[in-house]
Design brief:
The structure is a single chain. The chain is mainly α and about 230 residues long. It has one domain. About 80% of the residues lie in helices and about 0% in strands. The protein contains eight helices and no strands. It has helices at about 5-25, 25-50, 60-85, 85-90, 95-125, 140-165, 170-195, 200-230. α3 (about 60-85) runs antiparallel to α5 (about 95-125), α5 (about 95-125) runs antiparallel to α8 (about 200-230) and α7 (about 170-195) runs antiparallel to α8 (about 200-230). It is globular and about 60 Å long. The two termini are about 25 Å apart.
């Protein structure tokens, strides 16, 4: 009897979580990478002196760290499964291909969200609280991070599946990932900037940029969902 799509989804997602909990390799490497990036930022800002308002550049710095962290996680999740033959085993099982996409994207989103939850408080402590604190409510920052992370995980899952079978897969993934992320990152940086700086009419301006983020997520994730059956079977 063919299992329901929900049971297929849960089985694949559980498998990814259990594999990660056995080693914590991906979460550890992603978190350490982000924290190391923050240390470098701190050294650079200390050398620049007190004349620079760090809050003006922190939105871009946050997303530089998370974009490269997400690519690191995407590469590791698929490379391990490719090397161990897990992808071939999944394809041989009676599982709907779009369900594989949803489960893998949900797992990548979960791991990226965990890294963000660990590192954002450190980032805020180092670069925001010491310089006046958040100008807007904290929920804005949370919404901006999660909204953009959905798009990064969804599109990144499709691109990582494409690049895992190529030579120089790290380079190929970055080459495809960065141009497709540009519209999302533009809106995400603007929304994050409003969350950090605040200001007059901050809430309406924030939601205008989040509408761009939500539109990108809806269009691109649906496109990735529709294309995944062809990509993973290629």
């Amino acid at each position: 009897m063919r299992p329901s799509s929900w049971r297929q989804f849960v089985a694949i997602l559980r498998k990814d979580i259990v594999m990660e909990l056995r080693t914590f390799e991906m979460l550890t490497s992603m978190t350490l990478y982000t924290l190391l990036t923050m240390v470098i930022y701190q050294i650079a800002f200390t050398a620049a002196g007190g004349g620079l308002d760090v809050r003006l550049v922190t939105p871009g710095l946050i997303w530089v760290a998370f974009v490269f962290t997400s690519m690191l996680g995407l590469n590791r999740s698929f490379v391990h499964e490719k090397d161990q033959g897990v992808i071939e085993a999944i394809l041989l099982s009676p599982i709907d291909r779009p369900v594989i996409f949803l489960a893998k994207a949900a797992g990548n989103l979960l791991f990226l969200t965990i890294v963000e939850a660990v590192t954002i408080p450190v980032f805020v402590f180092l670069f925001v609280l010491s310089r006046g604190g958040l100008g807007g409510p904290a929920w804005m920052l949370v919404v901006a991070l999660f909204g953009a992370s959905v798009g990064m995980a969804g599109v990144g899952t499709l691109l990582a599946t494409i690049s895992v079978n190529t030579k120089g897969r790290d380079f190929i993934l970055a080459l495809m990932f960065m141009p497709l992320m540009y519209p999302l990152l533009t809106a995400a940086v603007q929304a994050t900037s409003i969350a950090i700086l605040g200001g007059v009419d901050a809430v309406p301006a924030f939601w205008r940029w989040m509408a761009w983020v939500g539109g990108y997520d809806a269009i691109m994730v649906l496109a990735a969902y529709g294309l995944y059956e062809f990509v993973i079977g290629a």
